[in-house]
Amino acid sequence: MFRPRLLPEKSFPSYAYLPGKYPHPVRDPLGHSYRSDPVTVAVGEALGSDVFLWGIDLFNHGYYWEAHEAWEPLWQAAKQSAQHRLFFKGLILLAAAGVKIREGKRVAAARHATRAAGLLNRPGFSGGRFV
């Protein structure tokens, strides 16, 4: 299945991290993101940022742990916006569910996905827009 890229100029990591199978991307010197620079994005720019779009590309192509890492700085920056914070938390939980599915932990995956759905279905967020 072809999945269009939002940032086709960026190369995907050499592997999609799975605990116990590959080196930890950030902590292990052999990790694909070892010593990468932290990213900061203002919450007002978050949804239009390359960081957000990169997280979508990662998620859509099965890099669930990496998508979580891409979106986490956006979640942290959203301390002053409850809607944004819950939205990014929902995306992060969906990414965590993807990791759990890959690990064969279906119950944990379902738990994360259910929590994500609860956050993403809240009033104030509709069809990909804040209302």
Protein architecture, described:
The chain is mostly helical. The chain is 47% helix and 3% strand. It contains 4 helices and 2 strands. The chain has helices spanning 50-60, 64-77, 82-103, 106-120, and strands at 125-126, 129-130. The chain has a two-stranded antiparallel sheet. A hairpin with a 2-residue loop joins strand 1 and strand 2. Helix 1 packs antiparallel against helix 2 (64-77) and helix 3 (82-103) packs antiparallel against helix 4 (106-120). The radius of gyration is 15 Å and the shape is globular. The termini are far apart. The relative contact order is 0.13. The mean pLDDT is 88.
| Biggest sheet layout | 2 strands, antiparallel
Number of strands: 2
Helix/sheet category: mainly alpha
Helix content: 40-55%
How far apart the termini lie comes to 32 Å
Rg, please?
15 Å
Beta content: under 5%
Shape: globular
Spatially, the strands of the biggest sheet line up as 1-2
Give the SSE order as H and E letters: HHHHEE
Low-confidence stretches: none
Question: Mean of the pLDDT scores?
Answer: 88
Summed up, the helix count is: 4
